[in-house]
Design goal:
mainly alpha; DUF5676; DUF5676 family membrane protein
Length: 76
């Protein structure tokens, strides 16, 4: 949950940064990383948040078992 929420907050901060500093915008990157995302509507913003949260869950589901495996193995 914490990684998913972290990515949602990061996504929201990046969108805010893009709106404040359009010359340094990252929205082209979001278009490539988040399927269905388009710049910028409320539904697209919500979709980006949901997808960022899902990416967080995906990373956590891969990382946590690997971390547990290697930390137990190296603790011996």
């Amino acid at each position: 949950m914490s990684l998913g929420i972290f990515l949602v907050v990061t996504f929201a901060l990046c969108v805010g940064f893009d709106l404040i500093f359009p010359g340094q915008a990252m929205y082209q990157t979001w278009l490539k990383l988040l399927p269905g995302f388009s710049w910028l509507t409320w539904s697209s913003f919500l979709l980006g948040g949901v997808e960022a949260f899902a990416y967080g869950w995906f990373v956590a589901l891969i990382f946590a078992p690997l971390f547990n495996y290697f930390s137990a193995r190296w603790a011996r």
